[in-house]
Amino acid sequence: MKKLKYIILVTLLISITNSGCKKFLDVVPDERPTEKDAFKDVFAAENFLYSCYSPLPNPRVGQSAIDLMTTDEVVTAFEHETFAQFPKGTFTASNPVISYWATLYKGIRQCYILINNVDETPGLPDATKALYKAEAKFLIAYYHFLLVRMYGPVVIVKEVKDIEADASTYAARNNYDDCVKFITDMFDEAAAGLPPIQTGSAYGRATSTSAKAIKARMLLYAASPLFNGGGGTQPSFYAGFKDKAGAQLIPITFNKEKWKKAADAAKEAIDFAEAQGYALYKNSTVPGLPSNPVEKDLRYTFVDKNSSEIIWADTRREGVYDYQNKSTPYFNSGAYNGVSPTIAMVEQFYTENGLPIDKDPSFDYANRYSIGTSPFGGTTLNLNLKREPRFKAWIGYHNSNYEIKRPGADFVKVLFRKNDNCGIQSRSNNYSPTGYLNKKGVSPQFGSGQAQELQPTVAESYPWPVARLSELYLDYAEALIEYGSDFATAKLYLDKVRTRAGIPTVDAAWGPIGGATDQVTLRSIVRQERTIELYLENHRFWDLRRWMTAEAALGVKAKGLNIQGTDDANFFKITDVVFARAFRSPAFYLMPIPIGEINKDINLVQNPGY
Amino acid sequence: MKDKILLTMKFTIIILLSTLLQVSASSYAQKRITLSEKNGSLDKILKSIKNQSGYNVFFIQSDVDKAKPINIDVKEMPLEEALKLCFLNQPLTFSIESKTIVIKERPIPAVRKSFFIKISGTVRDEIGQPIPGVTVKVIGTPKTVITNELGKYTIEAELKEMIEFSYLGYKTKTVEVKGLENIDAVLEPDAANKLDEVAVVGFGKQKKISVVGALTTIKPEELRIPTSNLSNALAGKLAGVVAFQRSGEPGADGASFYIRGISTFSGATSPLIILDGVAVSSGDLNALAPEVIESFSILKDATATAIYGSRGANGVMIVTTKSGKDLDRPRINLRIENSVSTATSVPNFVDGTRFMELYNEAVIGRSTGEIPYTKNKIDGTRANLDPLVYPNVNWYDEMFKSSSQNRSVNFNVLGGGKRIDYFMSGTYNQDNGMLKKFDLNSYDNNISVKRYSFQNNLNANLTSTTKLSLKINTQLRDYSGPASSASSIFSNAMNANGVDFPLLFPNTSGRNNILFGGKTGGRINGGFINPFAQMVNGYSNNFQSTVIATVDGEQKLDFLTNGLSFKALASFKNWSSTNTARSRGVNNFEINQSSLVQKPDGTFTYNLLQVGSTLAETLSTSNSSTGDRNLYFQASFDYNRTFAAKHNVSGLLLYNQQEFNVNLPADFIASLPKRSQGFAGRATYSYDNKYLAEFNFGYNGSENFAESKRFGFFPSGAVGYVLSNEKFFEPLTKTFNYLKFRGSWGLVGNDQIGGARFVYLSDVNLTGQGFTTGLSQDYTRNGPVYSRFANPNITWEIAEKINLGMDLTMFNNLSFTVDIFKENRRNIFLTRQVIPDFFGTTGTTVYSNLGKVLNKGIDASIDYNHSFSNDFTMSLKSTFTFARNKVIANDEPAFTRYKNLSLVGHPINTLLGYDAQRLFIDQAEINKSALQQIGGFVQAGDIKYSDITNGIDGLNMVNSDDQIRMGAPTVPEIVYGFGPSFKFKKLDFSFFFQGVARTSFFLSGFHPFGTSDQRNVLSFVDEDHWSPQNPNIYAAYPRLSKLDNPNNTANSSYWLRNGAFLKLRNIEIGYTYKFARIYASGLNVLTFSKFKEWDPEQGGGNGLSYPTQRVFNVGLQMGFK
Predict the structure, then answer these.
(1) CB under 8 Å to B641, separation ≥6 — which residues?
(2) Closest partner residue to B839 among A21, A163, A424, by Cβ?
(3) Chain B, 707-736: which have a CB under 8 Å from a chain A CB?
(4) CA B328, CA B418: separation in Å to the nearest integer?
(5) What is the ipTM of this complex?
(6) Which of A335, B87, B396, B929 has a Cα-to-Cα distance from B500 of 20 to 30 A?
(7) Are the beta carbons of B260 and B300 closer than 8 angstroms?
């Protein structure tokens, strides 16, 4: 009897544990999110589309913008920040500091996943499916463009790569021309399915206009000396740059016809954009300063959300530690007072007659570093006087008015001697290293309604222009001049930009000093025009490289005024800014591919010099 | 004749006295006698009994002279029983009359009829297993029998006769026949014979002689050192354990420990800890008082751990707590300790003046644009003009105490009866930190950790075959401390220099704020961090409670088949933690330099400016709570039987399951219960304690794998050979008392992958990345991020373990155990590293079972005991552990060119860095050397590295491909300890040295002056760094730099240091008086190491983390019976 009791007990116990066995370890419910949920309805599909845009490098954020405050345009008080490693030349293949290699390819994969799967989305109209796919193609092209701009020839990715692939099958780099062809074809394909304009909440998404604009920029780059056999006037850097199979990765012979392609693409983009109503920003109706209407147009071209000139913009919000706050004059430690144009940049701006300062007979070039009188009262450098409206609109100099909202005022008169309002005083941070401050891209409304915490408000925040019409004009003019066939049309488009900037036309300005008719003069004019017009718009970093002129501009220390000077006699002295500058040629013309990638893929070759 | 008269006289008097005094006849039974004699004379023994009992003894000398010599060894035995033993087989007999013992000649027994009773019973050992072959003898008669293989015997004896049970290695036991028909006996192992000690093994106990696996046991009293973390006592005490302590912060000062080093890089490297049959955390282990522990075993090889299947790959630590006993009176123990702890070492910094000179040297020498300190400021600081205007603060001294007080109390009671026994213990620890208290606050925010720990164990023998136990372990931990973490307080103190601001300014202007010193330009509210302000800005409390309740029952099933029993155990553990932090805003102020005026009397006037914006100074509160709970169940059948006296067979079949839940899960995955289940089994066979064989297995299921890969089978086998039990070995046994060889092989599994779960599934975050569009920049949508791709083939990580061991005892007092082991760990989980980024999968992990590691080593221990005399004994203990692992396979890029980067062939945790040659002499040398592409500008006085790969790629360049594996691993390969203890009369004295070797680390995080800080300078940097004045290319520090110069701060052989050390870990002196012992002890008393900047046990880093502590302790122990 007793035995029986135990036997029953034990059997019971075993049967209980057995019945629970199978289920016991199944703890993950089926309702977990999976890949399938990514396209389960129209909302999910839209979310997926936005995730494709996510890897876009933010062009105005110091942590990701490799090309904004990293050239000879400005020098900042933020030398300890990430971006400041580029002018110092301390980026390496081992530590590329800012590298888009991984993130951009991640975006490309996301785009292909969308293209492959969006058709499965229940309830999504066919037109929307087509639009999403066209946007994904635009991004695939644009991401490849960003990669090519940074690394030269890259690996073209045409599908969702299989992670199980054997390491010996990993791809090699495609040559530069193939990359360009892939990108322009893809832009064409995308443009066919995209609307010309996006408005309202969709503003900032891809359009056919922006596809054509970036395609034009791609072809301009491809025609430029760095990627086009040295431009025919100097040897290419890349004679020895071959892949493992011995194939040339960047063309080393000059092909003039590439300029023709660039010109045609620019013209196509311009005509298309103008047909959509894009036009240079003029006659601004925004109330307030600057009082000079030309200066107001120039200042607001960039900042006014309703600007008719902006073809494509990055619509992500700006943060507290970003560009605007960094540029604004010192104010109770809440404004960072540190984006400072260099003397080199200051001297690039034309005189009021639209000529380079060393060419204008009416400008006292020899005495430009002497002390004069500011139109706003007080002393200033002669260099700051008799300059073109773009200089006045975008550069804050000693004893000038910086248009910005402050308690009870619409401007700050900025002074830069050691103990002045924007001087260094005893700070080791938040000061202007050159005695100038940048105004471009800073809304004159900035700081309105705020006492101390200077954070851009909704009103002061604006989409950051990535492509605008005046760039296309300059792209077109440059391509025509380099192709050497139609200087008249080139000048026509240069003059559109110059006229809006309030300076005489090329011929009007240059006529008195011998005119500008030859390719060499026009080349210097279009390059200087571009340097001025696109100042601090993420262009010069790449322009200097594709022109093969970066070493002279970037390898030297910046110059500024002596900010340690407490009086005029000491302050108005041209002084080297102590920050180190380095440019290792030709290595720095291309960015390094992260060294780990070279080690993973036996077929991948590194850029020269890294 | 004369004797007889005397006796009669005395006798009369005694009778008189006894009637007068009315002494109760029953009282004599309570007198207890302790005797220890070898071949002692009855005369002497009777004197001793007289002294101990206070009874008179009457005898006739001539009778006593006839007595045979007596061998007796009893403790606390009732008087009458003791006397019985003395008069066994004597021609004399005794009687107790009142308070007098009367000795008489034994009357010649009259021939009478015998009343034999048939007596039977079972003889068992301490763990309840029947012992075959026990000699059962009726004393004074030739009747002798031997127990059968079930430990049973039958014998005939008369009433009042004594039955003696004797067996080699056990204490002989005598029982009087009181008419019982059934006499069961439990034999206790003879303390002198260690071979029959019982060792705790996986899911059971085994006699040490039959253990064939590699296991180490330690007596709990050896773990008693002045620290409130048990794990800090492990290093050097247990062969096979690698342990070290990285921090001295109360509440976070437990040691890291590994069994036989590290064999995997999957993330799960810590051993399984089993407390009373239930898996617990290392925190639960740390909270145990040594007094609570009955046994402590470390299972090292496959035989010992395979039975734990999934959880045993990294070794198992088994701790059992004490149980009560059948005692007449409870045993009560009390320990009270009070200790003072100080930092083992404090890094040295330069003073303010020197700091400024070095800072100026750095900024001028690098042209990075920072503004040097003015001469006026340096001179003013040097002249000590005004501590507020020219501060010169030693933050360490200002903020931290030089010592703190800790105390510890343990009280425990052990007792019980036949039916129920109990053990109860309560422990209280209080550890205090080094933070000073300031009048600024009403609160004291120094770290204080109070811990209350209770252990209650109850055993009930419900019937002769049924036993039920309840064990409850309760731990309460009450922490109070600063609002910010102690580690951030230390790093803030490190990152501040002494000259930029004072602690605080006196509030002379009637402001509402506390005027903390500060400086504009930093990152926190526009200023630099004032470490003092950050320390005093609030306080926090954390209360944790842990309850582990375990019920376990055992039913003997001998009626089914002899030797079978059923056991079941259920356990519940709950841990909860509640955190409350209160902190307030800090307002920093600085002197407005333009208002600073020095008056003619030398004092200064100035105005203060606020740094940044004004923050509220009221305390704001933040709360959090967390916790988890664990349910565990196991049931098993045990079988143990000996056939024909020599063949011992045992078996175990066990089922277990576990479920673990987090109370406040952070995400969906964490909210799912963690489950495991498995079967385990063991079969052992031994022949005559000579030839031993054992087979174990674990069959385990893990939720972490896809259904088809869920279960793993982990078998192991072992054999042992006790050479010293062989006949032919007998001539040698005088010297070599015991010699055993062991060998084992087996597989053990691991299903833990760092903290990751369900890695076979894909992981998609549907709203992980997004973008914003719209003219008003407000239309944001978030889409999916693929964090992990699915891999349904993920399965068990497997450890193949091989162990060869030898146990040897010589001269009865020197024992020696050595094990050599080898472990092949395969299928190690790792995330795929070789998928190129252009696949677009960066940030998406893919797991695979690809890694392989080989771990080899040796662990050994030597114990030596020696008595110089009865009053003077010594013992010596030493251990040695060496474990070296080597990565065999790793998912590395196909380093067809740069073999130097590969981890394959090196131990896990091997350091990777550049090969530093020396410092550059001048620019000319830099120009002609390989281009250093590590980052930062390279100048004369910066570190020059070797271009390792020049011969491979032809690149005349030093980049990250030029790094090499260097030094020894960060986890030491060698851990050892040794030390004697002496006992002289009532004095005892012991000390213990412990050391590690074959370990390295990189100095890091100390570099002056920091990129966004104004970090202070360590003295060694000041003393020998490269400068134009000291162009020493072998200087201890390269050219100074205000901003971190990656060329110099990168990991390299320049910063490689040998982490080996030898410590006088513990020293103790004690004095015992009656039931009390008073003692003084010290912990971490001395450190010997080549590394001098801070305690090398803390490892790399900047040295200014919470220092390990040197403790001096006084204590009192009392034991009552």
Answers:
(1) B130, B149, B150, B562, B563, B648, B649, B650
(2) A163
(3) 707, 710
(4) 10
(5) 0.92
(6) A335
(7) yes
